[in-house]
Sequence to fold (166 residues):
Amino acid sequence: MLGARRRPKLALSEPSVLNYRVGLADIDMFGELNNARYFSYMELGRWDYSYRVGFIAMMRRHSWGVAVGGASVRYRRRIPLFARFTLSTQFICHDGRWFYFLQEFHARERICASALLKVCATSRDGLVPATEVIARFDGEVPDDRIPEWVQAWIDTEGMRPWASDA
Fold:
């Protein structure tokens, strides 16, 4: 958050790109970035993005929070100890209820991991629909078409069985 204040503001359609290096606290027993740490870095990326597009200020004004409702990650290449890598965070679309983000890890100019996440704003009353958040947003809003691959993920997630709440 402190670093985001020094970086330029972003439009909703622009990606946030952060640079990191794998440290000793980031690795697993194989000496590479641990899969749980990917999620920690992705959270930092979403906070940076949210601050720079103005979402954090809007959250404060409306006493909103944020929740992640799902994630799908593809790991392609390992990121070893002390390797430099970049994390990009980009808003893709919304479905009226949720926002969808693409987050990608690159090292040596090659993709290492890619994640699709669905995220929402929350209030004391529960989920704040994406349409309400967008309506209150002060910046330019990209078109709201859902890419086919994101819609396929949404549809597939809707078919997953859930244990009963009994």
Summary: Residues 35-53 form the longest helix (19 residues).
